[in-house]
Amino acid sequence: MHLGLVGLGKMGGNMRTRLRNAGHTVTGFDFNPELADVDSLAAMVEALGADGSPKVVWVMVPAGDATRSTIAQLKDLLGEGDLVVDGGNSKYTDDAINAASLAEKGIGFVDCGVSGGVWGLQNGYALMYGGAGCDVAKVMPAFEALKPADTPDGLVHCGEKPGAGHFAKMVHNGIEYAMMQAYAEGWELLDKVDIVDNVPEIFASWRTGTVVRSWLLDLLVDQLRADEHLDGVRGYAEDSGEGRWTVEAAIENAVPMPAISASLFARFVSRQEDDHAMKAIAAMRAGFGGHAIQSMPPAGA
């Protein structure tokens, strides 16, 4: 298929490469001209649909105003039967609004939560999508190319209603918060006592045959082997929104979430002082998503 892709940063750029490796044609636009294939959204849309098929544009820009603005511009450029896919980390409540706006011109909308970080190019992406089946069918070839190979998992239609995919991805990220917090607290305790040695290899041993093995654990081991006490990492971790939204949804639906809410609040603590456990959170975020690490200032600074 021929796909338009808006946003060619860490995720979008790798997705373009994976799609092209699978034989699809991708015309990408980014405000950084060094990354873009064309110089405007209009030029990107013009390049699509030469064979008369519906034009499909996948948006991978930051959640909020940037996504809303991009979709509003695409509404003016696309027409009946075309499709917009929001693959960013938008709040699920935005999706119904965007879908209704695009529907005024007969343009379809699919929301898709994408997980895989900077490793998605090699390993594939887990895709959680929402929207009408007729719209999903238009982008399914791209979904199949992006998902992990040789497995039926990693691709799920979460619901027909707009927002279903982003809601599932939101909960996924809330769980991720709690998992990282548990690893970080365990690391802080092991790192502090003098009864154990070789903490990185203790974590490494848990990667085989234990119930706590995971990709996050693999990433933490890599970081600890490079810097056992994470001395070069400041104990500061951002929250990118999904953790807050998960806790808000839990409150709205009277669902108890003590672990996820505590992990969110722990990140707030990290902004007040150099929290030791947050070094591990920051290191894991850098490992799976390429998020920036704030370095410790030089001694005496």
Keywords:
about 300 residues; Rossmann fold; N-(1-d-carboxylethyl)-l-norvaline Dehydrogenase, domain 2; seven-stranded mixed β-sheet
Shape from CA axes? Answer: elongated
Q: What is the ordering of alpha helices and beta strands?
A: EHEHEHEHEHEHEHHHHHH
Measured as a percent range, the helix fraction is 40-55%
**Name of the CATH first level of the largest domain:** Alpha Beta
Summing up helix and strand content along with how strands pair, one would put the structural category as: alpha/beta
Radius of gyration equals 21 Å
As for the number of domains, it is 2
Q: The biggest beta sheet, please?
A: 7 strands, mixed
- Return the CATH architecture of the largest domain: 3-Layer(aba) Sandwich
CATH fold topology of the largest domain = Rossmann fold
Helix tally equals 12
How much strand?
5-15%
List the helices and strands and how they pair.
Layout (H helix, E strand, L loop, with lengths): L1 E5 L3 H12 L3 E5 L11 H7 L8 E4 L5 H13 L5 E4 L5 H12 L4 E8 L4 H4 L2 E5 L2 H14 L8 E5 L4 H29 L6 H7 L9 H12 L15 H11 L5 H13 L5 H14 L12
Parallel strand pairs: 1-2, 1-3, 3-4, 4-5, 6-7
Antiparallel strand pairs: 5-6
Helix pairs in contact: 3-4, 7-10, 7-11, 7-12, 8-9, 9-12
What does this 3D model show about the protein?
By secondary structure, this protein is of the alpha/beta class. It folds into two domains: 2-161, Rossmann fold, CATH 3.40.50.720; 170-289, N-(1-d-carboxylethyl)-l-norvaline Dehydrogenase, domain 2 (Orthogonal Bundle). It has twelve helices and seven strands. The protein has helices spanning 10-21, 41-47, 65-77, 92-103, 120-123, 133-146, 164-192, 199-205, 215-226, 242-252, 258-270, 276-289; strands spanning 2-6, 25-29, 56-59, 83-86, 108-115, 126-130, 155-159. Strand 1 (2-6), helix 1 and strand 2 form a beta-alpha-beta unit.
